[in-house]
Amino acid sequence: MSYELSKQLGEFETDEQWAAPFDTFVEANKERFKKALDGMFQDVFNEHHDWLEDNAPANLRASAVERAKKLLTAVLEGDEEAASALFECGDSGRYKQIGHDKGEPWACAIHGNIHLPKEQKLRQALIEKHADLLKNERILDLESQVEGLRLQIVEANKRLERLGSFEV
After folding, report:
1. Per-residue pLDDT tens for 128-156?
2. What is the per-residue pLDDT across 66-104, written as a single tens digit (0 to 9) for each?
3. What is the DSSP string of the chain?
4. CA distances from 30 to 35, 36, 37, 50 (A)
5. CA 103: distance to chain centroid?
6. Model confidence, pTM
C-alpha cells in the first residue's frame, strides 16, 4: 500500500509515523548490515588482492617482453626513431659530462687499451643491423675518441715540456 493511500485511510497522521517503522528496523539492524557489508567488501578485496599478488609478476614480465619485442621488431624493420632510442644515439658517451673539462671529447685509454662506455659498446656490436644510422653514430664516436686522445697527448706533451724532459 502506498504512503498516500495509507495517509488517506488514516493509518498515519504524519511523515514521521510513516518513517518510524523503517527507522526502527534500520536502527535495530545497523550493526548487522555493517558487519555483512564489511565482510562482503573484505572478501572481494581479498580475492582481488590475491589475484593481483599471484598474477602481477607474470603479467608485468609478459608486458615487458611484449614491449621489447615490439621495439626490436620496429628496429629490425628499419624504424629509425626506434633504433635511435634503442642505440642511445646523440652525444651519449662521447663527451665529458662533469668537471672543468665538461664538453670535451671523452676517451679512456688505460695501458694502451681504449675502454668504451656501454652506449658505444652497444653501437659497436650492432653496427651491422642498422648500418647507416649506426655507422654515422660510430663515426662520431671514433672522431670523438681520436680528438680526446689527441687532447691527452697534447696535455702530456705540455707536462713533459714543463718538466724539461721532452723537446717538441
Report:
1. 667 787 678 888 889 988 998 999 999 98
2. 998 998 888 888 888 887 777 666 656 566 655 666 667
3. --HHHHHHTTS-SSHHHHHHHHHHHHHHHHHHHHHHHHHHHHHHHHHHHHHHHHHHHHHHHHHHHHHHHHHHHHHHTT-HHHHHHHTT-SSTTTB--SSTTTTSBP-EEETTEEE--HHHHHHHHTTTTTHHHHHHHHHHHHHHHHHHHHHHHHHHHHHHHHHT----
4. 9, 10, 11, 30
5. 28
6. 0.35
